[in-house]
UniProtKB/TrEMBL annotation:
Any Pfam family hit: MazE_antitoxin
NCBIfam families linked to this entry: lp_hng_hel_AbrB
Key words, A-Z: DNA-binding
PROSITE patterns listed in its UniProt record: SPOVT_ABRB
Organism in which the protein naturally occurs: Deinococcus xinjiangensis
All copies of domain SpoVT-AbrB, residue ranges: 6-52
Protein name: SpoVT-AbrB domain-containing protein
Transcription regulation is among the record's keywords: no
Gene3D superfamilies: 2.10.260.10
InterPro entries membership: SpoVT-AbrB_dom (IPR007159), SpoVT-AbrB_sf (IPR037914)
Length: 89
């Protein structure tokens, strides 16, 4: 059986979506993995796993939080994220 190219997901009451098993298996996704959602200029969105560089940046965020505790890692940006923001119109 061929895997569909489009999957329809329902947003739960807390804003969560569940990736279908076929998608998780194909991506090798497991609990605790990070995903990025990128909005394109045409309004479309891309869902992807971060690169090894971005994963390393996320690890740095966690370590800074452990050291300083007052900075929420979700509020910090990696160098890659800051560059991407500067390039947006």
């Amino acid at each position: 059986m061929t895997e569909p190219k489009v999957h329809v997901l329902r947003v739960g009451s807390r804003g969560r979506v569940t990736l279908p098993p076929a998608v998780r298996e194909r991506l090798g996704a497991k609990e605790g993995d990070w995903l990025t959602i990128t909005r394109e200029g045409d309004g479309s969105f891309w869902l992807k796993f971060p690169t090894a560089e971005a994963e390393a940046g996320a690890e740095v965020k966690r370590k800074v939080f452990e050291l300083f505790g007052t900075i929420d890692p979700e509020d910090m940006l990696t160098a890659e994220e800051m560059r991407a923001q500067r390039q947006r119109p």
